[in-house]
Design brief:
Rossmann fold, 6% strand, 3-stranded antiparallel beta sheet, single chain, 30 helices, mainly alpha, 5-stranded parallel beta sheet
Length: 669
Amino acid sequence: MRRRSLWSFLIAGFFALVAVAPQLLAAYQVTVPWAVTVATVIAALAALALGAWQHRYEQDATRRDEQDRALSEGCLTLPSGRLPKVRDFSNPRDWGVHPAATSGATASIPPFVPRDVDEELRTHLATSTFVLVVGDSTAGKTRCAFEAVQAVLPHHTLIIPTTVSGIAAALRAAEQHPKCVLWLNDINTWFSAPELTREAVSRLLAPARRGHRVVVATLRAAEENQWRTIPEDSAVADTHRKVHDLLSRAHRIFLPRLFTPAERERARNYARDQRIADALQQADEYGIAEYLANGPQLLAEWESAWSANTDPQAPSHPRGAALIAAAVDLRRAGYASVLPRRLIEEVHGHYLDQQGGHRLNPEALDDAWQWATRPRRGTTRLLTPHDPDHVDVFDYLVDSVQRRTRAGDHVPEHVITTALTYAAATDAHSIGITAKADGRYRLAEHAHRQAYTTRADEHGPTHPDTLDSRNNLALALHDLGRLEEAETEYRAVLDAHRRILGDNHHRTLAIRSNLASLLQALGHFEKAEAEYHAVLDAHRRILGDNHPHTLTIRSNLASLLQALGHFEKAEAEHRAVLDAYRRILGDNHPHTLISRSNLASLLQGQGRLVEAAAEHCDVLAIRRRVLGDNHPHTLISLENVASVLQALRLSVEELRGDDSDRNAPECRG
């Protein structure tokens, strides 16, 4: 920055000196005509150049000031406003590591027990890469990644976004710093940022770029399972596919919750710390990092707090438990920011009433808050105060609830609508995405409309965030069957993207794909086919035949050809897409199985029932083996098998090889 200011000063001084050349000649009584003429012409040109240069300099300075302000407001910076180096933040808590339990005078940060994945992780950090560490809450993901970055890249610039709106500034900063670490702890927190895409990360890490840039992210396994499951409905799948594409760009490292025998042996070297010694005693049931973070103990304390408050000597805390239940469900609903206390207070009564209400003799609200936010064993809390008006909920509790929640058991609607009255645009966006993924399209419309109107007021109608929200609103209207309204929104967004980004930008092409799907739903098949072909040609030209976006458009086109009755062309497209997925992703990948299911549906529609049954049964068998019996995709396959069996009018015995139909497929289980 100082170097740039010095050069600016020198350039301005030079132009100013040239501009006063005639006066200098006069002062020194130089009267040579040609010299005076030349000096006058040069002075006039210098004055024009100085004005243009000053205008450009002021514009550049304004832009730099705006970028610096966005960086300081959206990323972790030093008191000077500059980005830190990795070595400047040596406390794991600054990086998002869970506080560990304390005991007496024991230090708050226990020693790090080396994990089996350390060598793999540190090897990848030596190159420009995107590393994703996945595991259960309190498995030790953040601490493991923190220790690796500290060991390998201590002198790199550290970029940690602190708000969703800060993602854009963080990515710009990463492009400007040739040696940097972009730290995305709990990366699901940032999924709602439209700037965080596979393409953005790929540009950042492109081999042609000078320097050594690293993206390090962590993700809870429960969140990964949710986002890697791509709905089979293409309209619903857009956001999931964006996240899936982003995650698939990363080198994934899984960190188990339970320590391996080798890790436990290493932990014994640190057993002089009583907390690690205690954790080793529980290592068969709990992970050491999990136990150090007090996860099992806090979960048990929350569950016990629901009992009736009848003993003054040993009071329970049913209202405090309800506050925590409300906070957990707000997270499940997609509220990603710190949670307003007033919001939790407003909705917690529902959870208290579910457990018995006044019959539990709940404690006073102030007592409930004091209990819920009290540090346990030194630092760990059920609800952690962020400021006087906001709290965070321990994500271990959220994961625990998610694991035992049955499919379809959603957060109550009135809790979500109340949350939206408090939500900023980014949280409304996140709530809408979650509602859409759950098939709650009316709630998704409500949330996305709120995000759109808020962003339009804050940023204007053509800002990328505004257009992203408007596109999501159009998708929700599409899902609700309000097709004419959806078409109006799609076309408005498409016109803006074409005008601002051009016809070949990936966002423009995504909107055209959505519009083609809508035109198909409206029965405008020829217009839909023309849109699909145009988008497919662009994707092939820009991304290549094997890119996931290209294959998705080709699959959508195949479904349209099927609807038009062009079965041979549709089958050829479906088989080509399936072959590509098998070659690139393997037989068990979700994209491959969805493609195979689409082919089976085509065969069934043509009356080729034996072939269709064979495909559906194979897909069901793979999904049962890979995903389990209760996964949504497995249940869809069960429905597909039942449908084709009904069409065949075959009994289960016949499918298992009864002599009545030796050509029927075998569908076991």
